[in-house]
Amino acid sequence: MDRIVSAEQHTVEQRLVDNVVASFDACEDPRLKELMTSLVTHLHSFIRETRLTEAEWGSAIEFLTAAGHITDDVRQEFILLSDTLGASMQTINVNNQAVQSATEATVFGPFFVEDSPEIEIGGDMAFGAPGEPCWVEGTVTDTDGKPLSGALIEVWEADEHGLYDVQYDATKRAARAHLHSSPDGRYAFWGLTPTPYPIPHDGPVGKMLEAVGRSPLRASHLHFMVTHPNCRTLVTHIFPEGDEIGEKDAVFGVKPSLIKEFARQPATSPSPDGRLLESTWSQVRFDIVLAHTTM
Ligand code: BEZ
Ligand code: FE
After folding, report:
1. What is the CATH code of the structural domain delimited by 92-290?
2. From the CA of 218, how far away is ligand 1's center (Å)?
3. Residue 259, beta-bridge partner list
4. If we measure between CA atoms, which residue out of 192, 103, 188 comes closest to residue 139?
5. Is residue 134 within 8 Å of 281, Cβ to Cβ?
6. How far apart are CA 220 and CA 27, in angstroms?
7. Dist. CA 226–CA 153, nearest whole Å
8. For the chain, what percentages of helix, strand and coil (3-state, to nearest 5) are there?
9. Atom 9 of ligand 1 has which residue's CA nearest to it?
């Protein structure tokens, strides 16, 4: 909400905004000019609307400096900041326009690695990671319902302790794999029933979450990245129905269409691939619909 300032004060503040905006007049890149103009206009509106104090400005600088200090090749505090402010999700929304029945996208997260092991359809992506087994199956089609053969399906998730393989050891590969859809667009694999886990919260973003009374927990999820020629690459997750974190997901990644029933099964019930498991297991269906790149 705008606070009332005197006419003289308004003139001083507005002259500065106009001056800064005009400083981009000579910019030859029209997109850069548009972005810089919009950015400073919103930034100045924020400062003026909130009547930002100099001490608050100093705290913001300290916060950004701390985020810079903790950031390295592995830890990216600025992406975490973007994630926790919903900026990552909004950028994903803007760049993955809703198209017919296409599966919705969500955050990528910091735990994807390029060199995951390949598995066959029906294979086990857990590679010994602890957790309740989960049978995941579905189809990959385009928005016309045509099955997509040979789609690359990359999957990764945290184990039952809420940790990804690379958090134990950068070279460890478990609870991640890639596979390809069959000629009729089907896929299936064994994974783990997802569990909630906290985003890295031992740095400035963790302090910010604590200061505003927010939890660092992510809703339980299983990550997917699905690629097929002529289709838009889909980066998404599925979330178990009834998860206690849900809408309070620290990075705002939950979309209703991505919440799926993970049906828990007793140890004695035979699995879809005819196994008898010693523990309970769960089962989920996720039919993936890719948008055409021309849309
Ligand atoms: C993740 O799901 O792996 C994740 C996403 C955003 C921030 C931290 C972790
Ligand atoms: Fe994750």
Report:
1. 2.60.130.10
2. 7
3. 239
4. 188
5. yes
6. 45
7. 5
8. 30, 20, 50
9. 109
How do residues 70-106 score in pLDDT, each as one tens digit?
A: 999 889 999 999 999 999 999 999 998 888 899 999 9
Residue type, 25: D
Q: Can you read off the two tokens belonging to residue 73? A: 């090749």
Helix (H) or strand (E) holding 290: strand 288-290
Q: Are 220 and 196 in contact (CB under 8 A)?
A: yes
Domain locations in the chain as residue ranges: 7-83, 92-290
Q: If you measure from the C-alpha of residue 108 to the centroid of ligand 2, how many angstroms do you get, rounded to a whole number?
A: 8
Q: Identify the pLDDT of residue 1.
A: 53
Q: Would you call 145 exposed, middle or buried from its count of C-beta atoms within 10 A (0-12, 13-18, 19+)?
A: exposed
What confidence tens digit (pLDDT) does each residue in 130-160 have?
999 999 999 999 999 999 999 999 999 999 9
Cα atoms found within 13 Å of the Cα of residue 47, Cβ hemisphere only: 18
Residues 234, 183, 115, 175: is their CA dihedral positive or negative?
positive
Element (H, E) at 45: helix 30-50
- Identify the pLDDT of residue 295: 47
| Distance (Å, whole) CA 132 – CA 281 | 6
Question: What's the pTM value of the predicted model, to 2 decimals?
Answer: 0.92
**What is the Cα–Cα distance from 104 to 271, expressed in whole angstroms?**
29
Beta strands in 143-221 (DSSP E): 152-156, 176-180, 186-192, 197-198, 217-218
Task: Assess whether the C-beta atom of 83 lies below 6 angstroms from ligand 1.
Answer: yes
> Whose alpha carbon is nearest atom 4 of ligand 1?
109
